[in-house]
Design goal:
Distance between the termini: 30 Å
Largest sheet: 5 strands, parallel
Number of helices: 10
Helix content: 40-55%
Structural class: alpha/beta
Shape: globular
Order of helices and strands: HHHHEHEEEEHHEHEHEH
Radius of gyration: 18 Å
Number of strands: 8
Strand content: 15-25%
Strand order of the largest sheet: 2-1-6-7-8
Protein backbone atom coordinates (compact mmCIF):
# COMPACT_ATOMS: atom_id res chain seq x y z
CA UNK A 1 0.00 0.00 0.00
CA UNK A 2 2.83 2.40 0.87
CA UNK A 3 4.63 1.65 -2.38
CA UNK A 4 1.47 2.15 -4.45
CA UNK A 5 0.68 5.41 -2.65
CA UNK A 6 4.21 6.65 -3.17
CA UNK A 7 4.08 6.11 -6.93
CA UNK A 8 0.64 7.74 -7.08
CA UNK A 9 1.90 10.84 -5.27
CA UNK A 10 4.99 11.02 -7.43
CA UNK A 11 2.85 10.89 -10.56
CA UNK A 12 0.44 13.47 -9.14
CA UNK A 13 3.36 15.82 -8.62
CA UNK A 14 4.66 15.23 -12.14
CA UNK A 15 5.30 18.93 -12.64
CA UNK A 16 8.23 18.50 -10.27
CA UNK A 17 9.16 14.90 -11.12
CA UNK A 18 10.24 13.75 -14.56
CA UNK A 19 9.24 10.37 -15.95
CA UNK A 20 12.79 9.17 -15.36
CA UNK A 21 12.67 10.20 -11.71
CA UNK A 22 9.35 8.40 -11.23
CA UNK A 23 10.86 5.34 -12.85
CA UNK A 24 13.85 5.39 -10.51
CA UNK A 25 11.55 5.73 -7.50
CA UNK A 26 9.47 2.83 -8.77
CA UNK A 27 12.60 0.76 -9.21
CA UNK A 28 13.60 1.44 -5.61
CA UNK A 29 10.13 0.63 -4.28
CA UNK A 30 10.12 -2.60 -6.27
CA UNK A 31 12.76 -3.85 -3.83
CA UNK A 32 9.87 -4.36 -1.43
CA UNK A 33 8.65 -7.16 -3.67
CA UNK A 34 5.23 -5.69 -4.47
CA UNK A 35 3.77 -6.56 -7.85
CA UNK A 36 0.95 -4.60 -9.48
CA UNK A 37 -1.40 -7.41 -8.44
CA UNK A 38 -0.22 -7.15 -4.83
CA UNK A 39 -0.78 -3.39 -4.84
CA UNK A 40 -4.30 -3.90 -6.11
CA UNK A 41 -5.01 -6.28 -3.25
CA UNK A 42 -3.80 -3.78 -0.68
CA UNK A 43 -6.08 -1.10 -2.08
CA UNK A 44 -9.09 -3.41 -1.87
CA UNK A 45 -8.30 -4.87 1.53
CA UNK A 46 -9.78 -2.22 3.85
CA UNK A 47 -7.96 -0.27 6.55
CA UNK A 48 -8.69 -2.65 9.42
CA UNK A 49 -8.20 -5.93 7.59
CA UNK A 50 -5.05 -7.76 8.78
CA UNK A 51 -3.19 -10.38 6.81
CA UNK A 52 -5.22 -13.61 7.00
CA UNK A 53 -2.25 -15.69 8.12
CA UNK A 54 -1.52 -13.28 10.98
CA UNK A 55 -3.89 -13.18 13.93
CA UNK A 56 -2.48 -10.54 16.30
CA UNK A 57 -5.14 -7.92 16.83
CA UNK A 58 -2.97 -5.30 18.55
CA UNK A 59 0.56 -4.45 19.60
CA UNK A 60 -0.26 -5.88 23.02
CA UNK A 61 -1.14 -9.27 21.55
CA UNK A 62 1.96 -9.25 19.40
CA UNK A 63 4.16 -8.26 22.35
CA UNK A 64 2.87 -11.11 24.50
CA UNK A 65 3.52 -13.60 21.72
CA UNK A 66 6.95 -12.13 21.07
CA UNK A 67 7.77 -12.42 24.77
CA UNK A 68 7.01 -16.14 24.67
CA UNK A 69 9.26 -16.55 21.64
CA UNK A 70 12.09 -14.66 23.34
CA UNK A 71 11.79 -16.97 26.34
CA UNK A 72 11.91 -19.99 24.06
CA UNK A 73 15.07 -18.60 22.42
CA UNK A 74 16.73 -18.03 25.80
CA UNK A 75 16.65 -14.25 25.38
CA UNK A 76 13.97 -13.28 27.90
CA UNK A 77 16.28 -12.42 30.79
CA UNK A 78 18.06 -9.70 28.81
CA UNK A 79 14.97 -7.55 28.57
CA UNK A 80 14.30 -5.34 25.59
CA UNK A 81 15.09 -1.95 24.08
CA UNK A 82 11.77 -0.82 22.62
CA UNK A 83 11.94 1.64 19.74
CA UNK A 84 9.68 4.62 20.33
CA UNK A 85 6.80 4.68 19.92
CA UNK A 86 5.02 1.50 18.89
CA UNK A 87 8.05 -0.68 19.47
CA UNK A 88 8.09 0.30 23.13
CA UNK A 89 4.49 -0.87 23.54
CA UNK A 90 5.37 -4.24 22.01
CA UNK A 91 8.52 -4.45 24.16
CA UNK A 92 6.54 -3.68 27.30
CA UNK A 93 4.09 -6.51 26.73
CA UNK A 94 6.96 -8.83 25.84
CA UNK A 95 8.69 -7.89 29.09
CA UNK A 96 5.53 -8.63 31.05
CA UNK A 97 5.94 -12.21 29.81
CA UNK A 98 9.72 -12.54 30.14
CA UNK A 99 10.17 -10.56 33.35
CA UNK A 100 13.22 -8.85 31.84
CA UNK A 101 13.98 -5.12 32.13
CA UNK A 102 12.39 -2.63 29.76
CA UNK A 103 14.29 0.25 28.20
CA UNK A 104 13.47 2.78 25.51
CA UNK A 105 15.52 3.85 22.51
CA UNK A 106 14.51 6.81 20.36
CA UNK A 107 15.22 6.52 16.65
CA UNK A 108 13.79 8.83 14.00
CA UNK A 109 13.58 7.90 10.35
CA UNK A 110 14.89 10.27 7.72
CA UNK A 111 12.06 11.13 5.36
CA UNK A 112 12.18 11.33 1.60
CA UNK A 113 11.27 14.74 0.13
CA UNK A 114 7.55 15.06 -0.63
CA UNK A 115 7.03 11.53 0.72
CA UNK A 116 7.50 11.50 4.52
CA UNK A 117 6.34 7.90 4.88
CA UNK A 118 9.33 6.64 2.89
CA UNK A 119 12.49 6.13 4.96
CA UNK A 120 15.83 7.03 3.42
CA UNK A 121 17.71 6.36 6.65
CA UNK A 122 17.42 6.94 10.39
CA UNK A 123 19.18 8.59 13.32
CA UNK A 124 19.28 8.45 17.09
CA UNK A 125 20.12 11.31 19.44
CA UNK A 126 23.88 10.88 19.16
CA UNK A 127 24.62 7.49 17.65
CA UNK A 128 25.98 6.67 14.19
CA UNK A 129 23.76 7.73 11.29
CA UNK A 130 22.20 5.15 8.99
CA UNK A 131 21.68 6.21 5.38
CA UNK A 132 20.02 4.10 2.70
CA UNK A 133 22.41 5.00 -0.09
CA UNK A 134 20.33 3.16 -2.68
CA UNK A 135 17.18 5.14 -1.86
CA UNK A 136 19.07 8.43 -1.74
CA UNK A 137 20.68 7.72 -5.09
CA UNK A 138 17.46 6.58 -6.78
CA UNK A 139 15.51 9.59 -5.52
CA UNK A 140 18.41 11.97 -6.25
CA UNK A 141 18.25 13.62 -2.84
CA UNK A 142 20.67 16.52 -2.50
CA UNK A 143 23.11 17.04 0.36
CA UNK A 144 21.44 20.22 1.63
CA UNK A 145 18.09 18.51 2.18
CA UNK A 146 19.79 15.50 3.74
CA UNK A 147 21.81 17.57 6.21
CA UNK A 148 18.77 19.56 7.28
CA UNK A 149 16.73 16.39 7.71
CA UNK A 150 19.46 14.75 9.78
CA UNK A 151 19.77 17.78 12.07
CA UNK A 152 16.04 18.10 12.61
CA UNK A 153 15.46 14.42 13.24
CA UNK A 154 18.41 14.22 15.62
CA UNK A 155 16.85 16.98 17.69
CA UNK A 156 13.58 15.11 17.74
CA UNK A 157 15.28 11.88 18.79
CA UNK A 158 17.23 13.70 21.50
CA UNK A 159 14.04 15.18 22.97
CA UNK A 160 12.34 11.79 22.96
CA UNK A 161 15.32 10.01 24.51
CA UNK A 162 15.61 12.64 27.25
CA UNK A 163 12.03 11.87 28.25
CA UNK A 164 12.95 8.23 28.83
CA UNK A 165 16.50 8.70 30.12
CA UNK A 166 19.87 8.20 28.49
CA UNK A 167 21.12 4.71 27.75
CA UNK A 168 24.14 4.10 29.94
CA UNK A 169 26.95 1.98 28.52
CA UNK A 170 27.74 0.43 31.90
CA UNK A 171 24.16 -0.88 32.17
CA UNK A 172 24.00 -2.70 28.85
CA UNK A 173 23.05 -6.39 29.07
CA UNK A 174 25.18 -9.13 27.54
CA UNK A 175 22.69 -9.28 24.68
CA UNK A 176 20.86 -6.15 23.52
CA UNK A 177 17.45 -7.04 22.09
CA UNK A 178 16.01 -4.26 19.92
CA UNK A 179 12.21 -4.50 19.59
CA UNK A 180 9.95 -2.76 17.09
CA UNK A 181 6.28 -3.27 16.26
CA UNK A 182 7.23 -4.27 12.73
CA UNK A 183 10.05 -3.91 10.23
CA UNK A 184 9.52 -2.62 6.72
CA UNK A 185 12.90 -1.28 5.63
CA UNK A 186 14.32 -1.71 9.14
CA UNK A 187 15.83 1.79 9.09
CA UNK A 188 15.04 2.78 12.68
CA UNK A 189 16.09 -0.65 13.96
CA UNK A 190 19.46 -0.23 12.26
CA UNK A 191 19.97 3.21 13.82
CA UNK A 192 19.00 1.87 17.26
CA UNK A 193 21.32 -1.09 16.84
CA UNK A 194 24.22 1.11 15.80
CA UNK A 195 23.72 3.28 18.86
CA UNK A 196 23.81 0.28 21.18
CA UNK A 197 26.84 -1.15 19.37
CA UNK A 198 28.64 2.18 19.77
CA UNK A 199 27.91 2.06 23.51
CA UNK A 200 29.59 -1.35 23.78
CA UNK A 201 26.89 -3.95 23.08
CA UNK A 202 28.64 -7.22 22.25
CA UNK A 203 25.68 -9.00 20.70
CA UNK A 204 22.64 -7.48 19.01
CA UNK A 205 19.31 -9.16 18.31
CA UNK A 206 16.43 -7.52 16.47
CA UNK A 207 12.92 -8.70 17.36
CA UNK A 208 9.57 -7.83 15.80
CA UNK A 209 6.15 -9.39 15.28
CA UNK A 210 6.28 -9.03 11.50
CA UNK A 211 8.87 -8.30 8.82
CA UNK A 212 9.57 -9.25 5.21
CA UNK A 213 12.21 -12.00 4.73
CA UNK A 214 14.45 -9.72 2.67
CA UNK A 215 14.64 -7.16 5.48
CA UNK A 216 15.43 -9.81 8.08
CA UNK A 217 18.15 -11.26 5.88
CA UNK A 218 19.70 -7.84 5.34
CA UNK A 219 19.61 -6.93 9.03
CA UNK A 220 21.18 -10.17 10.21
CA UNK A 221 23.66 -10.15 7.36
CA UNK A 222 25.02 -6.74 8.28
CA UNK A 223 23.81 -5.01 11.44
CA UNK A 224 22.54 -7.65 13.88
CA UNK A 225 23.81 -11.00 15.10
CA UNK A 226 20.38 -12.62 15.10
CA UNK A 227 16.69 -11.93 14.57
CA UNK A 228 13.46 -13.10 16.18
CA UNK A 229 10.30 -12.65 14.12
CA UNK A 230 6.85 -14.18 14.50
CA UNK A 231 5.65 -13.69 10.94
CA UNK A 232 7.76 -13.16 7.81
CA UNK A 233 5.37 -12.97 4.83
CA UNK A 234 6.82 -12.99 1.33
CA UNK A 235 4.24 -10.42 0.27
CA UNK A 236 4.70 -7.47 2.56
CA UNK A 237 3.25 -3.99 2.67
CA UNK A 238 2.84 -1.41 5.44
CA UNK A 239 3.30 -2.80 8.97
CA UNK A 240 -0.12 -1.60 10.10
CA UNK A 241 -1.80 -3.83 7.54
CA UNK A 242 -0.83 -6.86 9.63
CA UNK A 243 -2.82 -5.71 12.67
CA UNK A 244 -6.54 -5.35 13.18
CA UNK A 245 -5.86 -2.31 15.36
CA UNK A 246 -2.82 -0.10 14.85
CA UNK A 247 -3.59 3.25 16.46
CA UNK A 248 -1.10 5.95 17.28
CA UNK A 249 0.35 5.49 20.76
CA UNK A 250 -1.45 7.81 23.19
CA UNK A 251 0.46 10.36 25.26
CA UNK A 252 -0.95 8.94 28.51
CA UNK A 253 0.42 5.56 27.54
CA UNK A 254 3.85 7.04 26.83
CA UNK A 255 3.89 8.82 30.17
CA UNK A 256 3.37 5.54 32.01
CA UNK A 257 5.91 3.76 29.84
CA UNK A 258 8.41 6.55 30.56
CA UNK A 259 8.09 5.78 34.26
CA UNK A 260 8.79 2.10 33.69
CA UNK A 261 11.34 2.18 30.89
CA UNK A 262 13.15 5.26 32.19
CA UNK A 263 14.27 3.29 35.22
CA UNK A 264 15.16 0.21 33.21
CA UNK A 265 12.96 -1.71 35.59
CA UNK A 266 11.39 -5.12 35.32
CA UNK A 267 7.71 -4.52 34.51
CA UNK A 268 5.18 -5.41 37.17
CA UNK A 269 1.92 -6.87 35.81
CA UNK A 270 0.23 -4.40 38.14
CA UNK A 271 1.46 -1.62 35.86
CA UNK A 272 -0.85 -2.94 33.20
CA UNK A 273 -4.50 -1.92 33.53
CA UNK A 274 -5.51 -4.77 31.27
CA UNK A 275 -4.02 -8.19 30.74
CA UNK A 276 -1.93 -8.09 27.53
CA UNK A 277 -3.56 -11.31 26.35
CA UNK A 278 -6.91 -9.53 26.18
CA UNK A 279 -5.73 -7.71 23.09
CA UNK A 280 -5.65 -3.98 23.71
CA UNK A 281 -2.96 -1.44 23.00
CA UNK A 282 -3.99 0.47 26.10
CA UNK A 283 -2.37 -2.00 28.47
CA UNK A 284 -0.37 0.82 30.05
CA UNK A 285 -2.11 3.97 31.13
CA UNK A 286 -5.42 2.64 29.81
CA UNK A 287 -8.12 5.05 28.73
Amino acid sequence: MLAARTIKRLRKGSERWSGGEIGRAAEFLAQWGLSDKDRGRTRKAGASTPCRSWNSATRADAGARLGKRLLAEGLGRYGAFGILRGGLVVAHHAALITGGPLRAVAASKLRAPSQPELAIGAVTADGPIYLDDSAIRHLEIDARYLNEEISGRRRQAAASQARFGRIESDRLPAVAVVVDDGLATGATAIAAGRLLRSLGAKRLVVAAPVAPPATLQRLVGGEFDDAVCLHAPRRFWAVGRFFARFEAVAEAQLEELARIAGAGAEPDPGDCDQNPRRGTDEGVGGK
